[in-house]
Write a structure and sequence with these properties.
The protein is an alpha+beta fold. It is built from six helices and ten strands. A hairpin with a 5-residue loop joins β3 and β4.
Length: about 280
């Protein structure tokens, strides 16, 4: 009689063990879903449902990004904002945060300290904290930035990028470039703007940025007689000059803000003033 530790017995034991495993995991015989009760029906249907769910998830997560048709652009500097669709805007962009402009380390409109090395930007009306995908139309480079500041306050520009953003898009040496932006979520997928932000952070019309207290007081009184609410906001220009931004109204509707801006433009057309729409903060 062989010892239980003899290699021959090991081989038999191993073969028996493998056979038992095979029996234990042998797949069940297919069952007609109309027979065998609820449990068998569940066993039959579960893998098929799981396959459909996985396929649906895959199709959803791999869908192509929304496209932009420039022929649809509206009259507001090429902006398009439709309910349920991403906000799209095209125009000139600049950047800030260089060694000599003095913005690094200052508070932004959102309250956070401006860091030129972060992927952030300034926009006049997009909600603070929202994300935009920005494409440089000169070289087709793209990046996603977070809106944390207000601006640019120069005619003809729609976006001010941080130094890091300008590096990513490859236009630091030129200073400005033509861009297209669209609202996206944190993952970079196109998303519509939240209408609730129009109430949380209403629109205002900025009329001028003045440094002389007498001129600020005179303009404020004149505008109050026609438009009612007039506010001022302290700011510092790129050259380091302290100014007061004189603003009119508090509008939860973009359309109302546009009408006020048109009225202000007519009222002040002989003074070289060009009012524009921004947010209270």
């Amino acid at each position: 009689m062989l010892s239980p530790f003899h290699p021959t017995n090991w081989s038999k034991a191993c073969a028996l063990w493998i056979h038992e495993i095979h029996i234990a995991f042998d797949p069940p015989t297919p069952v007609d879903p109309g027979k065998g009760g609820v449990l068998r029906l569940m066993r039959w249907s579960t893998p098929r449902v799981a396959t459909l769910v996985a396929l649906s998830f895959t199709l959803h997560c791999t869908r192509p990004p929304a496209t932009y048709d420039s022929s649809l652009a509206g009259s507001r500097q090429g902006a398009l904002s439709v309910d349920g669709q991403a906000y799209v805007e095209e125009g000139m962009a600049s950047w800030y945060g260089g060694n000599d402009d003095g913005f690094a380390g200052r508070p932004t409109a959102s309250g956070e300290i401006f860091d030129p090395e972060q992927f952030t930007c300034a926009h006049r009306t997009l909600p603070l904290g929202s994300f935009v995908e920005v494409e440089n139309l000169e070289n087709r480079r793209r990046t996603v930035l977070r809106v944390n500041d207000r601006g640019p306050f120069i005619k003809g520009r729609v976006l001010d990028l941080s130094k890091r953003g300008a590096e990513e898009l490859g236009f630091m040496g030129r200073g400005t470039t033509r861009i297209r932006l669209r609202s996206v979520d944190a993952m970079g997928l196109p998303t519509a703007l939240d209408p609730a932000m129009d109430h949380a952070d209403p629109f205002v019309v900025q009329v001028a940025a003045l440094s002389d207290p007498k001129n600020i007081e005179s303009l404020t009184r004149e505008l109050e007689n026609t438009f009612g609410v007039v506010t001022t906001q302290s700011a510092t220009t790129r050259g380091g000059l302290a100014v007061k931004r004189v603003r009119v109204g508090s509008y939860t509707s973009r359309q109302d803000a546009e009408q006020a801006a048109e009225q202000l433009a007519k009222l002040l057309k002989d003074r070289g003033v060009e009012p524009f729409i921004t947010r209270q903060r």
